Amino acid sequence: MSTILVLAPIIAGAWPVYASLVTGVALSMGYSLVKSQNELYGETGCGANAEAELSEEVDIQSTQKIVATMKDGDSLKFTNASYELTFIKDPRGVCKCQVKCAPGTRSTKAELKREAQKVINKVTQTYVYNKLKTELAQKGYNIISDDVTAGENIKITVRKWK
């Protein structure tokens, strides 16, 4: 007997849990954590013309329960050769992923939005995968295999003996 389970999660957990999840995913996707503005732009102040830079913000819909555990302005910043990502809770209480071009690179708004959505989707998938494995183990299921398909879908095979 086979069952296919499709999950549309609401990510629930505390800000530290979410922060570590986002950090793990971003690092696995080739980003590095930015600790300060000076580390991002260097001491020269290259970010001084930030108003002229192209950026895109994408609301993160699957994190409503985390918002309550975050303070306004809590954020995580990541960078790679092409993009700078910032996960932040804005003053209205909305979690967002802001993406902009790294210094010296150019992208369209559509490319920026696609990159933000790619990272958000990977964070959500990783959360659901870890949560599902934990829940299955607690309910007495044994995980036989977990495979990632070419389309980045995860197939988990489980068994429970009675």
Task: Provide an overview of this structure.
- With about 160 residues, this protein is α+β, with helices and mostly antiparallel strands.
- It is about 35% helix and about 25% strand.
- The chain has a five-stranded antiparallel sheet with strand order 1-3-4-5-2. Strands 6-7 form a two-stranded antiparallel sheet.
- Helix 1 crosses helix 4 (about 110-140).
- The radius of gyration is 18 Å and the shape is globular.
Looking at the chains present, what oligomeric state does this protein adopt? single chain
Largest sheet: 5 strands, antiparallel
| Poorly predicted ranges | 6-12, 37-51
Overall shape? globular
User: Which structural class do the helices and strands define?
Assistant: alpha+beta
**Head-to-tail CA distance between termini:** 15 Å
**Count of individual beta strands:** 7
User: What is the count of DSSP helices, taking H or I runs of 4+ residues?
Assistant: 4
Tell me what portion of residues adopts beta-strand conformation: 15-25%
Helix content: 25-40%
Order of helices and strands: HEHEHEEEHEE
Biggest sheet strand line-up: 1-3-4-5-2
